[in-house]
Fold these 3 entries.
Entry 1:
Amino acid sequence: MEESIGERLRRLRLERGLSQRQLADTGVTAAYISRIEGGERRPSVRALRQLAPKLGVSVTYLETGSDLTADEQRDIRLGDAELRFRLGEGGPEVETELRELLAESLEALDEAGALRAQVALGLAVAGRSDHAQAVQLLEAVVAHQGMSPLEQPDVYAALGHAYSELGRRGDAIKLFENCLASLDDSDPRAEAAYVRFATFLSYALADAGDLGAAQSVVNEAVDRAGAVDDAYTRVRLYWSRARLASMAGESTNALSNIRSAITLLKETEDTLHLGLAYLLQGEFLLEENRLDEADAVLTLASRLVGQADAQHRGGLLAERAKVAARRGDAKTALALAEQAIEVVGSGTPSEEGRAHWSLAEALAAAGDLIAAEKEFDRAEELLAGEGRYTVQLLKVRARVARESGRVDQAIELLERATDLAARRFVSTSPGVRGAA
């Protein structure tokens, strides 16, 4: 229990072997001290200044139980909250503490403390996929004078990811272009930072459907990565090249690159990203309908990702539902797809779209083609702005139509998929080449 001023006064007095009368002073009578110790009175500032020297402590300690100032105490609490967040401890409690520290810092006009609290809070919110709130917090952070992509790369990465998940891909592209333009080549950290932000830019461009510009950015990053001796830099490049190859329909190349990323990640203790790499490999294997291999790597992904945020758990459940549906196990597929939709909830269009896609395949496997069509429509609507998944969704939908005897619809869907795939390579971002 936290010690009150009266309890602290009594403890200190008894530790020093003083009676209330012996401690008394001019204007601070023994009766007054008795009332303070009993919790009936709160000592005045004058009384604290008179009593503290006689007890051999500072006025601050007598009043608060600590010799630290309020600013110093807040700084210690902030450091503790930041550490707990980085270690993945505390969950909602850490986020609550960061909100309180942000409010206290603003009230105390502590600009540096408020910025630190807002950075940690923004990253915490982004980590649980609350993208709208992450944007609100992190936009204010990056607007702060002196905030640098080189010093705070995680802030810019999280903000760009949140933009993309909210469908604001133009904002993500602009943010990462600005990050590249701001890097100082004289800083030895610039090369690794360049590769990192170029990778993020390629994701944003690819998701916006501009594979030509995305490939140009990645090629430039590959050229500059030779001087960077960092495993994560190479992982990012392999990951980006894998995604681009998949979107270009080059499944063999996609699988080769993601396997290279997995090999590097196995040498680290980063089980989360290793699990996510297996998830991506599972998606690529499903594109080739290699069901047994996909099932095996998705099982590995499930073990490694564990209770990650809803986006990743929902994605895992959706991919596993597709495997079950294509094996003809409609009951398992339906159960997994419904779990995916429940886990994702009202997430981003990409998250919801993938979940509804899996439900469409499950319903088709169960023979409920009318309901499956509705879910395919819903998935296509949600993924309309998602360059990464739409072509594959159209191909799967064409296969289901063909298998159910709707040949004309299957041909129309395949034509749309071919047209969309071709349009991806037409650059719509001429400014990117200057930034890259």
Note: The first helix runs from residue 5 to 15.
Entry 2:
Amino acid sequence: MVSRRAYRRVSVNEIDREQLLELAKEHGNPGTVLGLDIARNEIVACLRWGQDHFERPWKIINPKETGVLVELCELLKSHCTGFRIGLESTGTYGDVIRYALSESGISVQRVSGKAVSDYHEIFDGVPSQHDGKDAAMVAELVAHGKGTLWPFATLSEHEQILRHQVFRIDAFRKQQTQWLGRIEALTARHWPELTSVLKLTSVTLLNLLATYGSPAKAIADPKLAKTLRLWGKKYLKEEKIAALVLFARTTKGLPMNASEVSWMQELAAESLRCHREQLACDKIIKEQVASDPVMQRYSDAVGAATLAVLWSEVGDPVAYSSAGAYLKAFGLNLKERSSGKRLGQLAISKRGPAMSRRWLFFWALRAVQRDELKGWYEAFIQVGNGSSSGEHRKMKGLTAMMRRLCKSLWHARVHNKLFDYSLVISGMPPRGRRRRRKAAKKAA
């Protein structure tokens, strides 16, 4: 496509069906692919007949004219053997057209957005990027076998409920994190002693701030100690209650005006609301996991909420051909950039869903505190010196643990065994510096 106006779009309503059929009879073959670049309000389609012969891009108003596009695809399917549709794996804007195409029995394939981005200059020798060119590149990549089957699958009622609650619990957790960050800033200014007695996530602390908002209002209540006992129940010791009362009276924090007190109460109330919503979501998730015989086997070891996130985001591990494929679905496969004497560091690709990696990170944090894995983790972070030690090694250790946990879960599921933490690091060689780095240093 080197013509000056090769990418000029044609409205889908202006396509002559008789002429399209003639072209299909002349050029139609198993290599015929229609690439789609989908935006919120517009779809750009580019038809590739095979042998690098392209039609001008079609312009489709989304969703007003998607029916016309489906009709044209059905027409092409009836005259072109092995006709396929290619889509980028971005967002949810393509779900409507993907559903319609799947219902019509047309093969839909997914192409990585990164693959399309990297193909810009290879495609026509120009590093430009626009919708018409993107649609043509999607078609080209599918024709060269770089696509993956992507039929629209309707979720079962159980899967829909689980996915809904997964989205809710993750959203409320992120909201609560934001509220707690603001609360931490205000308490550091006006009541700095408070977090030395109770954790910022403590329900008692949040109730205290939502009810009173300031140490002055708290100490003005003669029933403060009794109220704290009511909130903390048996979990709040008398020493902490006495400390809270004392710090409310003798705090070194700045005095709070009415607006600051009101804002503190709002923040604490919102944080409590998010906490309650998370508990409600967690209850429903546990019920749904318990109703699934497969998931129920791993819920105690992994955690019901974490397991639900993993199942909802990437599916059942048994659907993957290998542990490496399962890791790649999460974006935990390793990438490297090395050239000549420069040996780049290995890092995870992060190509999978971010939500699943976030929950895997929390799972790894819990796992390294277990007796079976604590020794390995402590030995891992001690390897190296200088910039390779400390916090950097801790993060690398947690990332390595995330990978090992995913592999262990895949093996347990595929071989129909219970998840065993003692097997997570079984057979792993002792930690040490990478040999190739030692060889590179000797050569230098």
Note: The first helix runs from residue 17 to 27.
Entry 3:
Amino acid sequence: MGFWDGRRVLVTGASGFLGSYVVERLRARGCARLYTPSREDYDLVDGSAVRRLLDDCPSDLVIHLAAVVGGIGANQARPASFFYDSVMMGVQLMEEARRRRVAKFLALGTICSYPKLAPVPFREDDLWNGYPEETNAPYGVAKRILVVQAQTSRAQYGFNAVVLLPVNLYGPRDNFDPGSSHVIPALIRKCVEARERGEPEISVWGDGSATREFLYVDDAAEAILLACERYDGSEPVNLGSGAEISIKDLVGLIVRLTGFTGAVRWDRDRPNGQPRRLLDVSRAERLFGFRARTPFEDGLERTIAWYEGSRPPTAP
């Protein structure tokens, strides 16, 4: 509790999916001097807005969560936007925080930064051993840049900048928009709506052979706060559950939990994305004591229940 006493904390992306959980945990820990600016008031792509933000919200700790995010389809449709906006938000904010001598800066990277064919499980030392998978490479490279900036700013100026690399997150309050959602909310929505309409089948991208790792969003929020409290190192740190599941098995699990009884049709003309994703999560446990606590099926059940309870019924 003492770490947060009197500390002025700025959270970008505070109204977003992960940000809302981070803010809840900060308040539960007694963080009373908390800034949660909106994008409408401060567009972090604009350098003048970044400077105005830090004028208005003088901070001891910045937790940078704001980003342009989405699934494979969104990344393919807007690769330049994913790259440019993510770079400009992170680079300008980190540099301006350094110039103002902010005591600590924590930035969120992404599993998408890893090489397409990185050895499994992905270890932080393999981050630079190849180009990311093509469908999300612009976003992944943009987040790699933050690792370089954090390490060089530390080496030259002694700036305490930390970068965490999370897997795909899921949970209640996720983005269920089919145009931009990630795989879990997209599948949940598809199954629930197909069940309500009595449709005989759903269509899923790829062939189901790709694997993914997922982390429950509230566990991710706890990991971020633990890193704020306990980690001041230069090396990026993976955040994940350490459990791998194929898309085929994931679809089967969501089909069962949503009560959809139709067939699954695999659209093999659509990309699988990265062949495998699984993180080595030992560094996070060793350096700041984080281990994922939420069993995957429990997290899915909570996510499905939230989605079904927060939306109007599907039109027939």
Note: The longest helix spans residues 79-99.
